[in-house]
Write a structure and sequence with these properties.
263 residues, alpha/beta, Rossmann fold
Length: 263
């Protein structure tokens, strides 16, 4: 199945911004935030895996055309629009973009509807760091940063940066000190997600940052290309023993541990 017909389509409005949201499943809520170029069939497939694991998924459409497959032209168009969008901060080092505030409100609404101890979120690529910014809210218990690519790593400072304001990072660090965890995923040779960015997360969060770094160096045992970027979607390989399958399993277990109450 590659369409979105098995998801219920609603809209959500916050601070004057209304966006479509695709929802399915029951259980604790998880916000799936799509990557470039949009809410593609591969993102929807990941959402279904989260639903099948026992969660209620909400997938907002932030940019692009929901359900449209990836193509070079589609990526270029969405990237150009995303780079100039006022709600998505692509270069700033210490600013939390308005889209993150909208996502926090969506997560709060999902938690009110679904109950449970809290909410999870997965950001990918352009939106990879958004789940970190959502963590200022105590309801965000399971933030996942999959290949967080912003700000663009075009300088040493930007290679280290997380794309979240200093005030928000202080709050995130305080929550980590109280026991909150963050899960991060990346391919080791992905130029869009430099090792320095994960080093910053380790410095900020200590052992509360749980890193999954998949070897994509030349000659790696699974033949993962150096160009691999999307851990849970476009470069995901659904085969037992494959590192991306292990990464998916780690994400789902993280959600269970953080969001499913103990019996």
């Amino acid at each position: 199945m590659t369409t979105l017909s098995d998801f219920d389509v609603t809209t959500f409005t916050h601070a004057g911004t209304t966006r479509p949201v695709y929802a399915a499943g029951t259980g604790p809520a998880v916000i799936v935030i799509h990557e470039m170029p949009g809410l593609t069939p591969a993102v929807a497939a990941f959402g279904r895996r989260v639903v099948d694991a026992g969660f209620h998924v909400r997938m907002p459409s932030l940019f692009g055309e929901p359900g449209r497959p990836v193509s070079p032209g589609y990526i270029a168009t969405s990237l150009a629009r995303g780079c100039v969008a006022s709600e998505i901060v692509t270069f700033a080092l210490d600013r939390t973009g308005p889209a993150i505030g909208w996502l926090r409100a969506l997560a709060a609404d999902a938690h009110a509807a679904c109950g449970g101890p809290g909410v999870g979120a997965v950001g990918m690529c352009f939106t990879g760091g958004f789940a970190l910014g959502m963590m200022v809210d105590d309801r965000m218990l399971a933030p996942v940063l999959s290949q967080p690519s912003l700000p663009f790593p075009v300088s040493p400072a930007r290679r280290r940066a997380l794309g979240v304001s200093d005030a928000d990072l202080d709050r995130v660090a305080a929550r980590a000190a109280q026991g909150a965890c963050v899960l991060g995923l990346r391919f080791t040779r992905d130029p869009a997600v430099p090792a320095e960015r994960f080093s910053t997360l380790r410095t900020l969060l200590g052992d509360r940052f749980l890193a999954v770094e998949i070897d994509s160096s030349p000659g790696n045992p699974h033949g993962i290309p150096r160009s691999a970027h999307s851990v849970l979607t476009e470069h995901f390989v659904d085969e037992p023993g494959h590192p991306t399958r292990a990464a998916l399993d780690r994400v789902l277990e993280f959600f269970r541990t953080q969001l499913v109450p103990a019996p």
